Every structure is written in structure tokens, then in C-alpha cells.
């Protein structure tokens, strides 16, 4: 059992293409491990929504999470969410997806550049200028923030995991400080929660996304909301790394993290 209350705002069931367990099983394990609150936020890639079957996956995810929510009432707080990736690539479709269900939380993320594959699937950077790629990635995050119909900005160093896997070094976020400051300021101005994503702990890079330095900078630029997520794709990893995420948030000057219910934020104390 956990000695501190754990909220995990970013997890994936088997309705994500890389998920492994059902919402019911994940809820069962989370409840058994003393988790206080979990949001199931299955992948929904807007730019390949119909091509890759996310229309079916999103509907099934919402249905199964709703069933788990009812079944575990009083034992575990379950939030119905979605990780909406590349939403501003097709705003009309993104709006349709958002309005199709009564989501508690919508995570906004960028997994790939326009017309390209997810960074996750990259096996080589041959012929790729990494700095140009990251600059374009941050331009897309800024574009997504300008659109803005989401609640949590996810893992803003997402490509860094795969750069490390393939090239063996940790990319320096300070090389992109101007654009990172721009997106952090925009995130703050639009009252979005910046996510401390602990999924990187399961990769060789073994780092949160972003690190303390960037979370502190977000606070300096007016950021008020922090979200924490394990990015778990397995039941047993729900809540993984969340205590460390709390420590990062605390050290950066935050005394609560954000919980979203019906897309309205409430404070979840961490001190």
C-alpha cells in the first residue's frame, strides 16, 4: 500500500495500440496497490485517425473505462481521458473527437512531425538533422497550444528518449531555450497543465519528461498547473515514478498537482 496519495493522470489500456491490459484489470491492480485516482488516457492519433483504426479504439476505450469506473466506484477514482496526438493537424476532426464523449481530461501531445512516423518507430537518424527536427517538433507544440482545446501538455521532450536510444546521448534542451520558453509561457497563459511524465524511467534514458530545470522555468514564466503521469502501458506500472514527480513539482515551487474532472481542474495536494 502507498503511504502517500497517488494520482496518475496518464495511463494506457489495451485499447492503445501499445497497451497490454484491460481497463478493468488495470483498475483492479491500481485499487489493490492503494492508488487514489487514475486517468485512463488511451492513444488517439488524429492525423491517422481512420487509417489506423483510432475511431474504433477511442469508442471502445471510453466504453470500457466507463464500465470500470462504475464497477470500482468507492474503491478507486477513475477518470475518463484521451491522449489526443497531433490534434491541430486536423482541427475539425479533433473537435469532433473531443465532443463525441464526456471526457474528464484531454492530454495534448506530439508524437510525429507532419507526414512522418512516430519518433517511437525510428530506428536511425541517418540523413536527419536532429536540431532541425527538434526545432520543428517545438514549433508543432506551439501550434497545438495556439489551438488549445486540451488540458494537459504531455512529455515535451518525447523525441529525446529515442535520440538517446539510437545515438546514445541526452539532447540538451537548452539549445532550444527560446522556443521552449515560448511554449512554456503559452502553456502558462492558456492555463494548461505541464505534465511531468515518468515514462522515460522505463527507457534507457531513465529521465522524466521534462526534468526539474524545465519545470522550474515553467513556474518562473507564470505556470500554475502541473500534471503527473506514469505513462504506464501495464497494470503493475500504474503510479510508477509518481512520488519522484511530486518531488520535482515541490522543488519547482508547486504544492499541488492538477486533477481534471469533467475538464475542470481541482487541486490534488502533494504536501
The whole-number mean of residue pLDDT values reads 97
Structural class: alpha/beta
Approximately how much helix is present in the residues? Answer: 25-40%
How large is the count of helical segments? 8
- Radius of gyration, rounded? 17 Å
Shape, please? globular
Oligomerization status of the protein chains: single chain
Instruction: Report strand %.
Output: 15-25%
Low-confidence stretches: none
SSE order: EHEHEHEHEHHEHEHEE
Give the termini distance in whole angstroms: 19 Å
Number of E strands: 9
Strand order of the largest sheet: 1-2-3-4-5-6-7
Brief overview, please?
The chain has helices at 23-32, 54-71, 91-99, 130-147, 158-167, 177-189, 212-220, 242-251, and strands spanning 7-11, 37-45, 77-85, 105-109, 152-153, 193-197, 226-229, 256-261, 264-269.
